[in-house]
Amino acid sequence: MAPEKEVQGGVEWRVTVPEGASAVVEPRPVNGWVDLVRAWLMAAAGFGRKAWLIGADDPRKVVHGVKVGAALSLVSLFYYTRPLYDGVGGWAMWAVMTVVVVFEFTVGGCLCKGFNRAMATVTAGLLAVGVHWIASRAGETAEPVILSASVFVLASAATFSRFLPAIKARFDYGITIFILTFTFVAVSGYRVDRLLHLAQQRAYTIVIGVGICLLVCVFICPVWAGQELHLLVSGNMEKLADSLEGLAEECFMEDQGRQLPSAKSPGYKCVLNSKASEDSQANLAKWEPPHGRFRFRHPWSQYLKVTAAMRYCAYCMEALNGCVASEIKASEKMKSHLRGVCVKLSSDSSKVLKELARSIRSMEESRSIPCLVTEMKRGAQELQAALRSLPEQLMSAGGEEETTADGGGGENQRVTVSLMEGMPIITAACLLAEVSERVEGVVEAVGALAALARFDRKKAAFASVAPQDESATPQRQEV
Amino acid sequence: MAPEKEVQGGVEWRVTVPEGASAVVEPRPVNGWVDLVRAWLMAAAGFGRKAWLIGADDPRKVVHGVKVGAALSLVSLFYYTRPLYDGVGGWAMWAVMTVVVVFEFTVGGCLCKGFNRAMATVTAGLLAVGVHWIASRAGETAEPVILSASVFVLASAATFSRFLPAIKARFDYGITIFILTFTFVAVSGYRVDRLLHLAQQRAYTIVIGVGICLLVCVFICPVWAGQELHLLVSGNMEKLADSLEGLAEECFMEDQGRQLPSAKSPGYKCVLNSKASEDSQANLAKWEPPHGRFRFRHPWSQYLKVTAAMRYCAYCMEALNGCVASEIKASEKMKSHLRGVCVKLSSDSSKVLKELARSIRSMEESRSIPCLVTEMKRGAQELQAALRSLPEQLMSAGGEEETTADGGGGENQRVTVSLMEGMPIITAACLLAEVSERVEGVVEAVGALAALARFDRKKAAFASVAPQDESATPQRQEV
């Protein structure tokens, strides 16, 4: 929250790494050209290092770059090869443009844009030819007026339609191409007088461009938006599980260990921050054909419900993290009383999440989920019981330690005071119970996903989430 | 989470309204053409109604559509006017394309894209001419090889560079245009032999296209990304304040009133969901010149720190909402003991947020913030005191009511049990204290914003956030 620093007589290099953290390289005074060049080289080296890290982290990104280069080289053959030049060469420019604009990282993105481009070009072309035909019948003076008016009205309406969420999500790119093509055909028709030939040429080039894009995109190391989403969801669920365990450990750790915060805990932040990429991947996955283990009409939108349930957990964990961050002053006695049940509950919840993640990743219904959920609910009940027995525990401990008791009433007084001072740890325990309850929402969402996506049942039977043992149902309102 | 319904022999219309809720229009059987037409008309009417609602909600969206239409009509004049046609008419297509692609809703978006397009075209054009010059010196056979290789290498590298977050955020569109222009010039130069003339033509058309875009965008009802962000942040802060009050009221409301949940509370969800639009607006605002009350180098990125602090509050409120949703079984006695302090604290915190929102909106430093913060801290202290005195209160109340006391120990036992049963309400109170603490983070972030943006001090003096009264500092660890 500090203002941007101005370093006098020096250069400050702030390297933003993908995760959003930033590393500041110490400024040094610049003396003449040598240092300036050195500074530039260092900046270039930093940039190169960053690029290298990104490439090393996900080599498919490098492959994507190479694929675009290959597709463009392929399409530019239309310029070099003379026979082809005489065919569509004059318009080969459009094929180049199609490749540059349509080629996306995922197959879904490529298909979405390719479809949008093709459909928008055909629709707008036909409409423009129609308008042009009407305008040409209206006489020399009226023709430009009709054409201009049609361009104005259609461009305005199409631009406005982009604000409709349903259209924005699917046809945003198509609208751009629609306006572009309509304007080109409607307006250039006034000059060129070869409208149908022009339309035919554009259709060829679109087919060539989109075809090359799809061939390269699908057949050379394809990246499927659906699979990305699938892996993102299961990966984030594992992070959530690790994070939950880490938070409980940190919160109920013995005081001497508190200097070493668990490296696991920030995992839930990934869940909080990945909504945008999940939405876009689910959107693109719908354009993709069946691939790998994903059938036709795989329930991609159900993944969004799973991630919403995960975020619901993560919000609660964020509040729990607030408890961890505050210095907890609860007596070691109270902590040790709650530590066992809390760590157990968090580990139970974490096990459920990990099993769900495994079930999603392998696309197999899990046989152990009902047991794990029952175990987690039992853990929640134990936590409630521990909370309820807390005053007695403290009382008996107090009685044992301090033998100079000043009567029962005073002791109870002390107990209630220490109870009230232990409030943050009790709040943490309650939040943990709340998280475990929200994990049940995740179980439900994943169960629906398993049913919709027809997860493999050969190895396992995914029983109902309802507890088999009625007595194990936690009485939520009491915690 | 239910699977998509298949309605046999009927049509189901699911209308998704912008907020994400969906209204399902009852399906009706389709009997022949009349009903089919009627169904289509109903769908069209539904679509029209939605469009009307969006337009009525923000008429600037309609104006934006009209602006795009006007800019396109203006640029298509280049086709109709013969003298102009002879000048750049053949390339006027590029001006049309520039207008369609560059015209964005906000001035910042338009400037960003215009700058990207212009810079990328110039850079790529110069580079391509250089490569072409080298290739033409290398002989008939080597020329296409050099050109193809340069296209391949540059397109691959440029595509990969998009994965660098810093480049993605600012120059994504520029990279597309860079690849496009480089390919065009490098490849078409092989045929056209009029490279410099071609480059000059493209420069003209870009200038014309971007010029028309900017003229229309800036001078006809401009929408500034900066102002949008400014209003979004202050508006969301007010929603957060209302929401906080609403949640506390719901949570501590008397039981007979619980059927009516406050309409205010979901406001914090706006804060949770608006990260993407805040990020993009802050990004675009940096491209904008000084406008209205915003000076050159207005600290747009500080707004993101304010919204991060607000989200930090909202996470905690989400957990609090979980408490509200659960049926709270605390005794009316306990509730009424805590109600006063909790509602006061939430109203104090809410007042702070509202004052901050007012301060941001009017861009004036607020004189009352330090007092309000002190008041809020006092409220937090009172809440702590109330929590600490809770056992005594319950004890005395229990003593008054139940005269058939079975000794002091039994009474204390009862008290501690009822204490433990009231856990959700105590957790809610603790979360409320945590929210009020996080509100201090918002105060700090807004204070930094006020300093960086030099908010108006004429009317008020924005004192330090540090409490004037040291004794008023809440002892956080005790709640």
TrEMBL record, chains A, B:
It is found in: Membrane. Signal peptide: none annotated. Its main location: membrane. InterPro entries: ALMT. Belongs to the aromatic acid exporter (TC 2.A.85) family. One of its GO terms (cellular component) is membrane. It is a multi-pass membrane protein. Keywords: Ion channel, Ion transport, Membrane, Transmembrane, Transmembrane helix, Transport. The chain crosses the membrane at residues 62-80, 92-111, 141-161, 173-192, 204-225. GO terms for biological process: malate transport; monoatomic ion transmembrane transport. It comes from the Eukaryota. This is Aluminum-activated malate transporter 10. PANTHER family: ALUMINUM-ACTIVATED MALATE TRANSPORTER 10.
